[in-house]
Write a structure and sequence with these properties.
Blueprint (H helix, E strand, L loop, with lengths): L7 H17 L11 H8 L5 E10 L9 E10 L5 E5 L7 H11 L3 H4 L4 H15 L3 E4 L3 H13 L13 E4 H8 L9 H7 L10 H16 L2 H5 L1
Parallel strand pairs: 1-4, 4-5
Antiparallel strand pairs: 1-2, 2-3
Helix pairs in contact: 1-5, 2-9
Length: 229
């Protein structure tokens, strides 16, 4: 179903010029970030940060590896209203998941069929190419990037076509866990929002999660020493 509306050949033909353009503009020249002090410096500098979050579903073969699938992907440029939010609808979903998504998006089945992985990734790649971010910010990116690359593998997209792999990653959860909690444990996004007294009424929706990541970045952009003294 995922190639029913946007064929692989069409996807490559439409997007390859943008992918080549992206590779020639090395946003990967940004330095790796490992401390909150560096986060503070970056968010107060000229770098462009793109927060990214994914949500998932299981395609009914939970006993098999690689069955975690993309259902929602959202991104937001730090400090701006420039954002995207896309859903994927698939025949691999259980009827219950399909019905839930149809109700959430208020779409007919025939309309939802257009929300393929291929069409969604095409839009995401266009956004990345236009924005040219220096950092790809996430909250614990292990599963997100793994599933994103699995979906790209299913579409047979070449490694060089995956522009998200050429952006310097900034895993905010990993940095906070290391810098604040001394690597003793990870911390959920919901728990972090509680600690900072941020209202997060819709957790586990990608568009709301990237908004919370944006607010956490805003907090670490503050000069806390100056505020406290």
């Amino acid at each position: 179903m995922e190639n029913s509306k946007t064929s692989l050949s069409e996807l490559i033909r439409l997007e390859r010029p943008n992918w080549q353009h992206q590779s020639q503009n090395a946003s990967s020249a940004a330095n790796a970030v490992t401390t909150l002090k560096q986060v503070h410096e970056i968010v107060n500098g000229s770098a462009k940060l793109l927060s990214l979050d994914l949500e998932f579903y299981c395609d009914g073969q939970s006993q098999m590896p690689g069955t975690t699938r993309l259902v929602q992907i959202a991104g937001r440029v730090y400090g701006q209203d420039d954002a995207f939010n896309y859903y994927v609808f698939s025949s691999k979903m259980t009827p219950k998941d399909q019905l839930s998504l149809l109700k959430r998006l208020d779409l007919r089945y025939s309309e939802a069929e257009r929300l393929t992985v291929a069409s969604v990734l095409k839009k995401v790649l266009r956004f990345i190419d236009r924005v040219q971010p220096d950092y790809l910010v996430s909250w614990d990116n292990r599963l997100d990037l793994s599933v994103l690359n699995q979906e790209a593998n299913r579409l047979q997209l070449a490694e060089t076509s995956r522009s998200w792999t050429r952006i310097q990653p900034l895993d905010l959860e990993k940095i906070i866990s290391s810098d604040v909690f001394e690597k003793s444990s990870s911390i959920s996004l919901a728990r972090m929002c509680d600690l900072l007294q941020l209202q997060h009424p819709k957790p586990h929706l990608a568009d709301h999660d990237v908004l919370m990541i944006d607010k956490i970045l805003q907090f670490y952009a503050l000069d806390l020493n100056k505020i406290l003294h």
